[in-house]
Amino acid sequence: MHTIKRDGTLVPFDATKIEKAIYTAFLKDADGVMRPGASEASTSIRDKVTAITALVVANLNRRSNDGTVHIEDIQDQVELALMRSGEHKVARDYVLYREKQAQQRLQQRQADQPESLQERDFSIRRANGDEIYLTRDMILKNLGSACQRWDWQGNADLVMKSLVKLLFDGISEDEFVQAKIMATRPLIETDPMYAYTAGFFLLEKIRAEAFCQNPSDVFIGGSDYDANNYPANYFQDYIRKGVAIERLDKRLLDFDLDKMAEAIVPSRDLHFQYQGLQILYDRYLIHENGIRLELPQALWMRVAMGLAVNEIDREKWAIAFYNVLSTFRFVSSTPTLFNAGTTHPQLSSCYLTTVPDDLDGIFEAVKENALLSKFSGGLGNDWTPVRAMGSWIKGTNGKSQGVVPFLKVVNDTAVAVNQCFAPDTLVHTQDGPQPISRIQKGDLVLGVSAPIVRWMPA
């Protein structure tokens, strides 16, 4: 678990700091004066502090979302734990002390900032170093758009309440988008529709990359941004660029690209929930040097064109395939989504092979696994023919070590040749979200089929 500081940065969660704060609250009043009769050596105080700290940590573990908890939430739990433990006077002084500290921080910020800075809410730093200024009304307008979906209306003020805890002056554009997502994700537990709100914010980031815009131009409605439309010629230019960088099949240029672009329904991008869109971003959308060129509807149309490339009336069938895919009536397997319409249009998945009982055959099977993993997935090996441990080896007059040592080689090969996850794909662990490249065998991670599982690479 990680703690979100007031400036939005993440630091490892440290229960000893909570214990120290509670211990200080028992020893000193709201003004920092030692309480009469209080002693640092008091065993009874230390026992109370230990018990209350354990209660706070247990509550935070139950409440934390994505392995993170804000510093203000921690202090709220300390107040609650003190009250539940019957330490009403200590709790009262702790509340008063927090309020005094908050006032001091506010006064310090006002003293450190020029007058003009106090007239607006905060600044956002662009990649080129320039700053833009956002008011609360501008942010609330953006949040309000994200909190509307079909006949559902979310609470933008509730998102704003969480968001302000994560904002700080000079926050970068990417950090601002991520802060909006982090502020929304805890609300998904109370209303699943907020998953569409978080997805809306991630879509802003993807559109900014694909349209070569600043993220701030997207979320403040600048440039030619329209949530229900793509810029003119976006799709045609994307296909041409994809072919030019040798990522897309040049046969896609034979399609009537204007007709294909006209058939795209950009508003269907808004039908993605956050988790689904994050998976597309991490694994499927075509990119160049980490910058996504492809939007969700462009992905569906690229796949549809790849499937229809050999049809006589290819435009007709591509549009038909697109409408099925983009409305989620059918979704192809991973290799099809990865490869359809690309320079390596391999669409199949799930392979079963039998490993022979000799070294040449065993390592040929390992090589085949690697080649299949490069452009596909879903591998199964039948090791039945390979002799068991202790079996006689005629060539060396020795004994076999069995299949286990070879399985380790196969496992390492599967990890090395893995197209499914980018190295920085986040996985939820007991220590909060971590890049998959840092996850070690045996680490506890959040699973889909079970709440908590141990990471065991295939």
Automatic annotation (TrEMBL):
<dbReference type="InterPro" id="IPR013509">
    <property type="entry name" value="RNR_lsu_N"/>
</dbReference>
<dbReference type="Pfam" id="PF03477">
    <property type="entry name" value="ATP-cone"/>
</dbReference>
<dbReference type="InterPro" id="IPR000788">
    <property type="entry name" value="RNR_lg_C"/>
</dbReference>
<keyword id="KW-0560">Oxidoreductase</keyword>
<dbReference type="InterPro" id="IPR036844">
    <property type="entry name" value="Hint_dom_sf"/>
</dbReference>
<protein>
    <recommendedName>
        <fullName>Ribonucleoside-diphosphate reductase</fullName>
        <ecNumber>1.17.4.1</ecNumber>
    </recommendedName>
</protein>
<dbReference type="InterPro" id="IPR039718">
    <property type="entry name" value="Rrm1"/>
</dbReference>
<keyword id="KW-0547">Nucleotide-binding</keyword>
<dbReference type="GO" id="GO:0004748">
    <property type="term" value="F:ribonucleoside-diphosphate reductase activity, thioredoxin disulfide as acceptor"/>
</dbReference>
<dbReference type="GO" id="GO:0005971">
    <property type="term" value="C:ribonucleoside-diphosphate reductase complex"/>
</dbReference>
<feature type="domain" description="ATP-cone">
    <location>
        <begin position="1"/>
        <end position="105"/>
    </location>
</feature>
<comment type="function">
    <text>Provides the precursors necessary for DNA synthesis. Catalyzes the biosynthesis of deoxyribonucleotides from the corresponding ribonucleotides.</text>
</comment>
<dbReference type="Pfam" id="PF00317">
    <property type="entry name" value="Ribonuc_red_lgN"/>
</dbReference>
<dbReference type="GO" id="GO:0005524">
    <property type="term" value="F:ATP binding"/>
</dbReference>
<keyword id="KW-0067">ATP-binding</keyword>
<dbReference type="InterPro" id="IPR005144">
    <property type="entry name" value="ATP-cone_dom"/>
</dbReference>
<dbReference type="GO" id="GO:0009263">
    <property type="term" value="P:deoxyribonucleotide biosynthetic process"/>
</dbReference>
<comment type="similarity">
    <text>Belongs to the ribonucleoside diphosphate reductase large chain family.</text>
</comment>
<dbReference type="InterPro" id="IPR008926">
    <property type="entry name" value="RNR_R1-su_N"/>
</dbReference>
<keyword id="KW-0215">Deoxyribonucleotide synthesis</keyword>
<dbReference type="Pfam" id="PF02867">
    <property type="entry name" value="Ribonuc_red_lgC"/>
</dbReference>
